[in-house]
Known about the structure:
The chain contains eleven helices and seven strands. The longest helix has 34 residues, at 177-210. The protein is of the alpha+beta class and 347 residues long. Residues 317-347 are annotated as: Disordered.
Amino acid sequence: MAGPGVPRASRAPICPSLPPEIWIRILSYHTDLTHLWLTCRGVSRTFLAYAEQVFAEYVIRDTHIDWALEKYNLGGKSRRPEVCVEFVRFSEDAGKRVALFKAKRETEGGVGGERNRRWRLKLKIPEAHVTKRWEERVRNSRPEMPNYTIRIGDVVNDTALPGLSFDAENKEISVQWRDMFCAFFREQERFAVLRKRWQDHLARDMQKLEHGEPIPHQDLHQPWAATELDIRKQIRRARLREWYEEKGNEELVWAVDSLKFYEKNKKEDGRVLKSLGEIPGAGLGEKWFGSTYWVQALHLDETDCFHRIDVKVEHWKHGGGGNEGAARKLPQQRARSMSIASTITVS
């Protein structure tokens, strides 16, 4: 027996370590993509490569970015003109840092697919004009009003597309795919944490009721549908706040922080109970006097974006959401599609 401070002799492992292709196959069965990207990927440098290989071989092929072509959200739940892009290849650099997404092939009905072709013919719009409008929508996309939705599997959001670039000639966009997944799954994780917090509080209140303890009126929980919307707003506003803080835009940071006050004093019919000048910091002579239009604009943008996401989710649930043929593969099919020969090099 070794004495104190004397390192023990290294022991041979009971079983040999698994080869990379087996680890990749095992991870491909993981049903929680958020956990796979944010947790498993951070275990070690080796696991980072394994997890990213799963995303490169499967998940990114089930990632769809849909660009809305209309300048304004007209409401309703009908399918609107859009360009749907799907993954085609990685960049040629050693780390494959950039992923390229291409509009649906010409054989599928031109830019955006068959539905867009019918829409163009009905309105007698040349395909070149559609490409031009798509380019405008890409270049005019803003953090508070992304002109796109991202669907990964059955989850839809409009998180950032870092390194976004547009290639009109090849009808492609390119993004830094690792950063794209980080932004997307970070918000999924935040949502799960806040939902669990609400569920825990609700469970504690139910226990109090079972024991006959009263619950103050102000502590009563609102229904999940309302809570879910509040959580989504909280997460989205945190995203915008982080973005504008990084850019040093104090005016828009103030506007984001003022949304809660504005919403609290706004009725469902659109009437505002208090003057916009009563928003903290926006009074006469104060720093943000004359900037209240930003609060209203951000509120409208937020409402439009949530509507676009919700409609996209509903379409997906009831018929593929415009990405025909994009059915999710079974885990067995995913595992068979893995190819260790194309493993991504982590620089």
